[in-house]
Design brief:
Length: 211
Amino acid sequence: MTKKKGRGLLMVWADVPADKEQEFNRWYNEEHLAERLSVPGFLSGARYEAVKGGPKHLACYELDTVAVLESEAYKRVQAHPTEWTRRYSPEVIGTTYIRNVYALIHPKTVTTAVAEADMAPVLQIGRMDVPPEIDDEFNSWYDTIYVPNYENRVVRGTPTYLTLYEFEHTHVPESAAWAAQRDISPVTHRIRPHMRHAPGSPGIWVKTFQF
């Protein structure tokens, strides 16, 4: 089976003007995703739209490691944008534009089953900072108590942490089972008030296209 998930993430969020959205989506789906996925070390890529939180558009790329973004192959593609990219990149037309790079910190390894799985139909994402004095406790709590899934530390961008939950549908975080696991420990009630979430986070994004 082909490896589809690794230890790095490149995530790009954007809002774009309504009159440019149709062409923006065409550019992403017909050219840009394929171009990025042609770079060795880019394992898979998908686009999502927000149903809760924001920005509206999210492109998520699974990387073998974050070192892929320092490779000659990636720098060559970056240095020679197409005409379509020069006109419709979110850097050019985005009214909101966030480009962050993340390295996986939990779990420590990616299992074979996870590595070979497609990107999820629904993502719940939290982006946050915590005060330095509770950093160690925060990581321990998130990794072992607070509905463990994927925790990543930012390599490029802000804020420091990203938590990524992969769901089959948008109703998972509304379930009784989710609420029970989320609030299972008194530590949760001590840590959560210190989490400084980025605007639009936590949010839920639904997959619209996968290359």
